[in-house]
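re: ur question from yesterday

yeah so i grabbed the chain u mentioned. its 620 aa long if i counted rite. heres the sequnce exactly as i have it in my notes:
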Amino acid sequence: MPDLAEQRRKLPDQPGVYLFRDTRGRVIYVGKAVSIRKRVASHFRADGRGGALGHDAMVAETDAIEYIVFSGEGEALLAEQAFIKQYRPRFNIRLRDDKSYPFIAVSLDEDFPRVYFTRERHRRERAYFGPYSNAKRVRDTLEVLSRVFLVRSCTGTEPGRRSGSPCLDYHIKRCAAPCVDYVSREEYRRGIDGVAEFLRGNYKGIERQLEDRMKAAADAQAFEQAAVERNRLAAVRSLLERQRVANSAVGTLDAIAIALAGTDANAQVFQVRDGVLSDRQSFYLANEGERPHEEVVEEFLLQYYDTAASVPAQIVVEHAVSAAAVAALSAKRDGPVEVRAAERGEKRRILELAQRNAKLALEEDQLKAERRREHRAEALDGLRRALELETVPVRIECFDISNLMGTHTVASMVVFEAGAPRRSDYRRFRIRSLDGPDDFAAMAEVLERRMANFERQVDTSPHEAGYDSSFASLPNLIVIDGGKGQLTAGLAALAPALDRGVAVIALAKRLEEVFLPGVSEPLALAHDRPELQLLQRIRDEAHRFAITHHRARRDRAMTASLLDELPGVGPARKKALISHFGSPEQVLAASAEQLQSVPGLPAKVGRELHAHLHRLGARE
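ran it thru and got these structure tokens back, copy pasting raw so excuse formatting
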């Protein structure tokens, strides 16, 4: 391959996308440019990014440059986002907040749709609103929606219960009782349309509807119904007033502010609908390239709205973004989008509020991170002293065995570096040499394979096929989940590691005792000390990783041996059963009613399955 300087000279002076790859061929950065040659050259100038450490690290790790030419900046922008989503490059802006946000879902695929709380949004035939930052606020909103629009709360594709009579929700005026035909499908759907309008932020329209219905009932001297409508209107206004941050003339907008500090960043999204703060979201970003504020703002906008349920007509930000980014957002909304900086008035005040929250959230996150680092450093130094090691155990590997009566035996290897999980180096093993339960022999096998993998990596270049970084270096400390027996079984396999100065211990779960090679009595560490807590965390993570693998193998085996033999169950229905119940065990334990209610499974097939499984259970 040509050297980097020659690659740069051959870059075109045209718009497009460029990719930086490291020595292992991994994409570490994706960028777009009006001129690929000039933009890449700016990265390699001595003053290209003001000496930012993250940017310098990116340039130093770059081994190859690829590019794709496009006819304009807009096409390049779309390609850049596709590549970022595909490769998740280390030096691009990444949302590092992996928590699961709540949504409000509407089951439009059902005759009488439900409105419910969820943390998933994978079903195409359903409408999702959110994400929301606060689960309690979502549940409060759902309660108001049930009081105003009388949507059903019962689960299942069909409304109602087996008794055939309406439930309590009908009697307390929380449901229109579609289960007993007290409301037509068309009228119920109008209520669902109202729910959708409310969740989109059309609060004024909902208030007007309720007020008109209250006045109409009063004019018709239907005072009881007028009182009901009055209470619904009061519930809506109460919910909105608690969240109002500006007058309704502000309209609908998203205010987005971002605070930067080194390789960390925080983004705050304030969703304002008719002057009401419908939600506030906080995202932590990884900015390892230490990219400037305007670039972070633009890339965050594109990533955030790529998965958002909707794009508002107005977005207030701290810096203007490119015309290509505005065009991409407009295409997503299927209508014009204005992205602007607020200079005065209510919008400026809302943006400043978002800025303050972003700065405070980032400072709090950095303080927590510093405390975690100090705690990990204390734990590692405590381990060094307790185990009388020559150096601090920076890299620790832990091994665990999982099986059920000797079947589907598997092992796990988890890795902690500097006291934190390094999940990219986690590895799973299938035990090959055993026919029955023997944890000692299984531990010996997996440790032998670990050392064999290390020996192979010694003679393998990082550029060659078969290179595995997780096995390429030895840890400072190996932890075996078990007692003296597991430790003894593993020592013979680990002789090459011991000769290279690797420390080996076993951690027994019952009394949390630490066993050392050649020492008859276990080492007792205080339970309130960070060093033992770190060992417990590593051991528990290895156990979790092993048992997850074991369950997956067992479920696959059960699925193949049991569900494949059920009458009327092909691949699609088998997938529907597992998706609905979660596991083969839950399928086997399901009642006839539960099997009949599985989406995509005819009720007749559900009854036949239950009868078949019941006969199998009786014979057994």
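noticed a couple things. The chain has five domains: 4-92, 103-242, 250-363, 395-554, 562-619. also The CA atoms of residues 94 and 286 lie 5 Å apart.
anyway ttyl
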